[in-house]
Amino acid sequence: MARTLMIQGTMSNAGKSLITAGLLRIMKEDGFSAAPFKSQNMALNSYITREGLEMGRAQAVQAEAAGAEPEADMNPILLKPTTDTGSQVIVHGIHRGNMTATQYFAYKKSLIPQIMESFHRLERQYDLIVIEGAGSPAEINLKQDDIVNMGLARMTDSPVLLVGDIDRGGVFAQLYGTVMLLEEEERQRIKGLIINKFRGDKTILDPGVAMIEELCSIPVLGVTPYLDVDLEDEDSLGDHLLGSGQTGLADIAVIRLPRISNFTDFQPFLAIPEISVRYVGSLRELGKPDMIILPGTKSTMDDLLWLRREGLEAAIVRHASRGLPVLGICGGYQMMGMTLRDPLGAESSREFLRGMELLPVDTVFGEDKMRTRVKGTFGQLEGLLSPLSGKQVEGYEIHMGTTKPRKPGRYMAEVAEDRGDPKADGSCLGCCYGTYLHGLFDGEGVASLTAEILLKAKGIHYSPGETVSYREYKDSQYSRLAKELRKHLDMDRIYEIMGVKR
Length: 502
Prior knowledge:
- This protein is about 30% helix and about 30% strand.
- By secondary structure, the chain is of the alpha/beta class.
- The strands form six sheets. Strands 2-9-1-10-11-12 form a six-stranded parallel beta sheet, sandwiched between helices. A six-stranded mixed beta sheet has the order 15-13-16-18-26-25. Strands 19, 20, 21, 22, 23 and 24 form a six-stranded mixed beta sheet that branches.
- α1 runs parallel beside α2 (about 55-65), α1 (about 15-30) crosses α14 (about 470-490) and α6 (about 170-180) runs parallel beside α8.
- The protein starts with a strand and ends with a helix.
- The relative contact order is 0.12.
């Protein structure tokens, strides 16, 4: 049976996901088969497995770091917020319906058998499992029915490392306060502390490290620096979503919708220095980009109304009228159509909403959810992105709703599931493009060719030279992360805590 280690944090965004991914890559490099596990994740960034099951994107990234195939057991419960007080509940990769926070709080203990089924399947399959907690284990109002932090550590009998974020300030108060709010049995599970995101001269920190070890009676196993690695963020707390406002030789503006989902679709462009990707949340921030992207969202109709209120819809339509490309993905594609209807109230309290009228399609929301991975080729595209026509494309669909063209026309791509029949995806009209495919820029050469198209339109010659696939690029980032963590973490002690011989 697998040996386990749990990574908990003093708060959200303390760096649990990154530390987990780095430890998994180290374990892979050291010859172990390893897997991530997070019993419950709340995020709008999700991933579709080969089996067509939905899981948190962060656990898929961690599985990639470990060299393992992502599977829904690695994240048995995924909560996708639909409102400030409600979420879509996904169990073992399948949509179970929407619940308010109160409803889910009363329901979640009944999911413990499913959580442990997933854990035991992984336990039989791998040498090591690195478990990630959520938020903080010291949320005293939630501890009674905890299934993701110390409650899960108890169920899986796992030792814990506690990560604090020094970049936000008050890291010693974070660590000490968290430890002191725990029960004695819970404190005994914490075998080490990690101070994360440190910048500067570590010798200045050393006296504080000694004092916190004495106060907590727990050793500090590492002070990890603010790591400059390009890995996908777990959720919308990611720094790059705030936007620097700086533009590259060619500028892509991604609209930062209130319920933005799968914003990592555009991560491949971050590896191309000539291209800037800005996440824009207001008309003032929009500027004059070379391409506008409307990303996925968990609340298509409500976010479309937000676009209108902010004046962004009119600006996007003006952008398209000048022959500049607008691309909508999933919910963004639905917005770009003529009408949106929700007769069953599956997506919104509204039954009807006029779309942006940029694409000749209509969307009807229903209770069934599409979850599939597909491959194919781009269609015969019009407008600036026409050089993509016929190129290979792959991605995955996660959506509720069916979008149909008003009459036969150009489609974005022709795709198929494994051994399935081809089908048309999306729509294309002039410089406006819509697709249901998440991850389409991850494909071989798609991002670099798009960059070349945008730069050429501005009279800038761009030759990518010997290109590295996005998959290879990500793999190099996992290795870079592992190399940095090896320098700053006491891996011998961590393996000893797990009861593992290197």
